[in-house]
Every structure is written in C-alpha cells, then in structure tokens.
Design brief:
single chain; alpha/beta; Rossmann fold; Dihydrodipicolinate Reductase, domain 2; 2 domains; seven-stranded parallel β-sheet; seven-stranded mixed β-sheet; 9 helices; 16 strands; globular; arginine biosynthesis; AGPR_AS; EC 1.2.1.38; AGPR; NADP
C-alpha cells in the first residue's frame, strides 16, 4: 500500500483529497498535517467525515511514499525549505509555486507540470508534480488540440465562471453568503495568475503563438464547478474540429467531447472535463466544464499520483456525476 501524507489539511482541496484517498484501494493515509487543528479529528473540520477517527497532526513522516501540499500560493516553497522528505518520497504540489518553467527547479527537485492530457509520459517518470490551477485546467483542455495543430492564429476570448469553493476557506468581502448569494461579478480581468501556465502550455505545442488570450474570470453563486467558453477564428468545418479534438483526446481517460449542449451538473463530483464545439461563421466556440475541486485540483492530483505509481489512471476517481 502507498503511504500518503497531506500538508495543510483543513482546506477544501485537502478535504477532497482525504475523501478520495480514504476510498482509494491502493492508499493508506499516514498523516494529515495542520498546526491550527492539531489533535482534532478530521470530522470536526470536514464534517461529512464524522465516522473517521483520523486526527490532524503537527508532525510529518518524512518517509511517506507521497505527500500532497495543499498550502496557499507561495507557502509550498517555504514548507519544503523547512521540512525534508526522503529522496523516495514523491511530492504533488497543489499551489502555483512550481508551475512555471522558471520556477520548476527548487532545492534540487524538478517539478513536472501535471496536466496528464499534455504531459502524461513525463508524469509517469516524475517524482515531483506541479498540479495545474483550476481555471488553467478548464481553459487548456479547450485549447490544446488547436495549439497542437498550430491553428491558434488570432486572439482567443475566454469567459469563465467558478463556484464559491474556488476562493478557498478564508473569508473575504466577496465570499460571505450575503454577498455571493444571487450575485455575479468578474475579478482580475485579463490578468489572472493562471494565464502564465496557460500561455506556457500553448506555446509548448505551438511555439509561434503570439496572439492574446483575453481571459475574463467570474464568480458565480454556486458552490463548485467551472463553466468556460472560448472562441477564436477557425477556418475549418465543425466536423473537422470534432475530429481534431477526438484524435487529440483519444487516450484521455477523463476528457470527453459531447455533441449536445453541456452544463455543470454533468461534471460536479467527478474528475471529468466535458467539451462542446460550436461553429459560427469563421469562429469556433469551445465550451469546457470541470469540477474545480476535482479535475481542477484534488482529483487531478490523484490522477497524477496513479500515473506516478503505475496504477490504473482511473483508480479511486469518479466518472459518473451525482446528477441531483
């Protein structure tokens, strides 16, 4: 059995990881690290896990087989500077600390960007993974087939909305129920931090890409999920585009293409990304949907872990949505 540790165990992504790992047939949770919750049972924070007797700890086991870093952005580097793990311990970081090429090497560790639909062979050989961002996952899965075919020639326009869990557990003026309920807003227009990794992946497949990705992120008044639309100029037919996407994702276990219109309930509580294509005059519209906490975070982290340990990629992950 794989021994796993979780660092920063009180947040939304850590809660999802615990739920997945408890039910993973190849994994035992060795520790869940949280200095603010030391001695509390997991169920005191993640209240649906009331039957679990696992407790938060302020100690780590440096010899676990895999450790997941569920820390705030910028904190993973600090934690790894202060805490040593065995050279055999695989690390999967869910922050943005190591996603960009300029930051991928840290303290002798080289982090591989953990988007399986882009880097599956490298992930299988990796010891350290930089798990992609949630918006970045939804947007890249909509664009990679076009980039791979060198067809992103003009500006791309992206409008994406995420649920309240995308903001994490810390309270702010825009996360209170009274503000979020029955409300809608944008934030960080054209400057969202995930643009760096999106552009990096696109240029990896299409090195001559020099257009703009105009990204408008939005806050929705629902708990979880990302609904993203992307459009750009495309000269081929709709059938050409469908074939292009089908070929690119023919071996992808969790990325599906639908001929019917799509909506968030199709992916909530799954590790799936569903894509839909629509052609209007000379524009191709690509819609993508994911669960921000699963395919956009913890589910993808488990998918990466499975690949790293040579386990069947879908092990411990849901492919069917809880529709109602």
């Amino acid at each position: 059995m794989i021994k796993a540790g979780i660092i920063g165990g009180a947040g939304f992504t850590a809660g999802e990881l615990i739920r997945l790992l408890i039910n993973h047939p190849e994994v035992n949770i060795d520790f869940v690290y949280s200095t603010s919750n030391e001695g509390n049972t997991i169920g005191k924070v993640h209240q649906d896990l009331i039957s679990e007797d696992l407790e938060f700890s302020n100690k780590i086991n440096p010899k676990v087989d895999v450790v997941f870093l569920c820390l705030g952005h910028g904190n993973s580097k600090a934690f790894l500077s202060e805490n040593e793990f065995s050279t055999k311990t695989k690390i999967i970081d869910l922050s943005n600390d190591f996603r960009l090429e300029k930051n991928k090497v840290f303290n002798g560790k080289t982090f591989v960007y953990g988007l399986p639909e882009l880097n599956k062979s490298d992930i299988r050989q990796a010891n350290y993974i930089a798990n992609p961002g949630c918006f970045a996952t939804a947007i890249q899965l909509a664009l990679l087939p076009l980039a791979n075919a060198k067809l992103l020639l003009e500006d791309i326009h992206v409008n994406a909305v995420t649920g309240a869990t995308g903001a994490g557990t810390s309270l702010s003026a825009t996360t209170h129920f009274t503000w979020r309920d029955n409300n809608f807003s944008y934030y960080k227009p054209f400057t969202h931090q995930h643009l760096g990794e999106i552009n990096q992946s696109v240029k990896l497949l299409q090195d001559n890409f020099n257009a703009q990705i105009n990204f408008m992120p939005n806050r929705g008044d629902f708990s979880r999920g990302i609904f993203a639309t992307h459009y750009t100029k495309y000269d081929g037919s709709l059938e050409d585009a469908r074939q292009l996407f089908s070929n690119y994702y023919k071996d992808a276990k969790f990325t599906l293409i639908s001929k019917e219109d799509i909506h968030l309930k199709q992916v909530v509580n799954t590790n799936n990304c569903i894509l839909h294509l629509h052609k209007h005059e000379d524009k191709l519209l690509v819609t993508s949907i994911i669960d921000n906490l699963l395919k956009g975070a913890s589910g993808q982290a488990i998918q990466n872990m499975n690949l790293m340990f040579g386990i069947k990629e879908t092990t411990g992950l849901k492919l069917k949505a809880s529709y109602f």
